[in-house]
Amino acid sequence: MSPNALIPSHRKPRRPSASSRALRAGVTGGFLTLAVTGATVPANAAEKPVAETQEMPTITTALATSAAKSADTAEQVAFNYERQALQDSAFSKAAKAAEKHKAEAVKKAKAEAKKKAEEARKAKEAAQARASRSSERSTLSAPSSSTATGSTATLVSFLKAQLGKAYVLGSSGPSSYDCSGLTQAAFNQIGIDLPRVSQDQSTAGTQVGLDNLQVGDILYWGSAGSAYHVGVYVGDGKFIGAQNSSTGIVERPLNYDMPTGAVRVL
Question: Model's pTM, two decimal places?
């Protein structure tokens, strides 16, 4: 046995070197914790295992604040995107609604224009139909010149004999006449003395309607008492008169130049 075998050693136990230590880090309760422990600890060591804890509130607060700001920023960005999407959707719907309303307004305007045009056409046709019926009634109510007898036949015969003669203002025949000169000369053939001018002839007899004419009625243009032209109704919807210097004495249908009124002297 060695003489030194039972002699206890006076050297202190060696602490674990820095290379044999393990570095542990963790976040506990909101703090950053660093723990350093020895790799091995002798069973009879007087010290407790090494445990070093250091709190770093400043770093922890900065990290928390940064994280909070990042969360707020992300939330704000998401909110902005959502709001923009809602606005875009609303604008799109409004634009579509406006286009729809515009199309409906155009369609309605076209329908109204078409309706008014149709109403105007119908009104025009109705007016033409009334005028035609009035003309037909006038023709049917007036006796034909071929059936005129006595003084009426003499009157019409004289007027027809003057057709083609010249119109001369102020003339009373026999080669030329003006409108009232022809009328006066015609009625002189049957013993009726008419005033010389058209204004007086338009009030010389009884006023009659144009839908109730008879052969021999005096037609006038203008107002009664101030007429500017006269002629004589000869039946079959026609009249004879000295029209103007271009046409002379002619026979025309009533619708050639519709008179204003008529007087009856027979």
Answer: 0.46
Per-residue model confidence as pLDDT tens for the chain (266 residues) = 444 545 455 555 555 554 444 444 444 444 444 444 444 445 454 444 544 445 555 556 666 677 777 778 888 888 888 888 888 888 788 888 888 888 888 888 888 888 888 888 888 888 877 776 655 544 444 444 334 457 999 999 999 999 999 999 999 999 999 999 999 999 999 999 999 999 999 999 999 999 999 999 999 999 999 999 999 999 999 999 999 999 999 999 999 999 999 999 98
**Domain 145-264 coded CATH 3.10.290.10:** no
Q: Where are the domains of the chain?
A: 145-264
Cα angle for residues 80, 83, 87 (degrees, 5° grid): 135
